[in-house]
Amino acid sequence: MPDPPERVWWRHLAGVVVLALFVTPIFFMLTGSLREAGLPPPRGLEFLPTPLAFDNYTRAFNLVAIPRQILNSAIVVGIAVPLTVLFASWAGFAMARLPRRTGGVLVGVSLPVMAPTLLLLLFRDTIFSFQASFVPALIVTDGGSPPYATTYLPLFIDRNAFEYLRYGYAAAATLVMFVVTAVIVVIQYRIVKRWRKAFVV
Question: What pTM value is reported for the model?
Answer without folding.
Answer: 0.44
